[in-house]
Amino acid sequence: MLPLHTAPSSRAWNRALRNICKRGVLFSFLLFTFSSGLNAAPENSAITLTQAVQRTLSENPSLAVFPYRYAALEAQAKAAQLRPGYELSVDAENIAGSGAFSGLNAAELTIALSSVIEMGDKRSARQNVVYGNRSILYAQQQVESLSLLGEVTRRYVDVLAAQALVELAKDAAQLANDSLRIVEKRAKAGATPEAEVKRAQAATEQAKLALLAEQQRLLYLKVALSALWGVTTPDFEVAEGDLFQFGNDVEFEVLLAKVKRNPAIDIFATQARLKEAEVRLARTQSRADITWSLGVRRMQESDDTALVAGFSVPLSAGKRNSGAVSTALAEQHEVSVQREVTLLDLHTQLFRAFHNRKQAITTVTTLRTAIIPALKEALVETQAAYQRGRYGYLDYVSARQELLSAERTQIEAAAAALTYGAEIEQLTAEPLASTQYGEDSTFSGTAQ
């Protein structure tokens, strides 16, 4: 990938990059604990979301194309401000004929300079179209950056959840080993058949396989995260962050008001201005340009010279250009319709993300405060009862699996809550924390 600093520079690109980086540093601060260095390489084989965001914004190819696009628009702007050029023409008449017109004796030579006088302020209209395209590009860059930041957060959450699932798989493997020892002890005492020992051994091996599968999945998710900044082999071991920190809820109406200021909506306002410029440009084409010429003619036969001048104007230019004007007006009206459709779609996405996040947080809270503690107590009591011969092996295994299943559901629900939170942030183009704490810049989970 071509390094970002080798791209063509422009004031628009630099301003846009500063804006994206500022938003990227704030994006999803609610969810994780960060280290203080934004540009520093991960230390102790650990990475934070801040570092992942910074590396993605500076090295992801999808953003690296924008400086080149800005450079192309700058070139178009230079071309748009040019005035019509001049033409030099040379005409020769009455040469190489017959009789009195043979040779150059009766020749008439004309040397003239000609150009075009643009009517209807076409030059300004062309420049306004280029400026409109530049604004569109800037808005597209904001949308692309938000999409990229959302993807970084989602993949980071996936890595955090996978790390938690690996630890859970380790606990499951250890629990299976402990169960095997208990079953073997009872078998030696003649209190349980040998078949239960075999089943416990099989369960232990299955737990090892499950741990291996979770470790392989974690490795893949690390690769997927690293790919966002162009690295094929992850250069970190651990992703830092609190998987179970969600913050407080924000009212749906507050979030909806912010969605209406999303860059995806700003694009339509910019497009509307661009279409207005295109309509003006189309209307200027209805004003016919004047072509003029001025030169000198020499009559070889009389050895005389004279000035020649002329001009031409196309007829019915307005009628011939009416189709272009109608097309530009139709495209201008289409923009407002597209804006309403997009707003409706964003409302639906926000509603889904908002309520799914609330449901996921409720699930985590219920599991942590009520279900998992009860299942842990039940496992302890079931294990003790099994050792005393009051419960069978299936009762013991069921209690163990119920606890592991609840803990896995808790991790998945926490990851879902964070992922939906990231989607809300992407839709509102603002961290949840800033709407939550108003003017306070202290974010939940931020290192003090």
What is the C-alpha radius of gyration, as a whole number of Å?
Answer: 37 Å
> Which whole number gives the mean pLDDT?
76
Structural class by secondary-structure content: alpha+beta
In DSSP terms, counting alpha (H) and pi (I) runs of 4 or more, how many helices? 12
User: What is the straight-line distance between the termini?
Assistant: 36 Å
Number of strands: 6
| Spans of at least 5 consecutive residues with low confidence | 1-10, 20-43, 434-448
Q: Give the H and E element order.
A: HEHHHEEHHEHHEEHHHH
Overall geometry comes to elongated
Strand ordering within the main sheet? 2-3-5-6
Strand residue content: 5-15%
What percentage of residues falls in helices of 4 or more residues? 55-70%
Biggest β-sheet, characterized? 4 strands, antiparallel
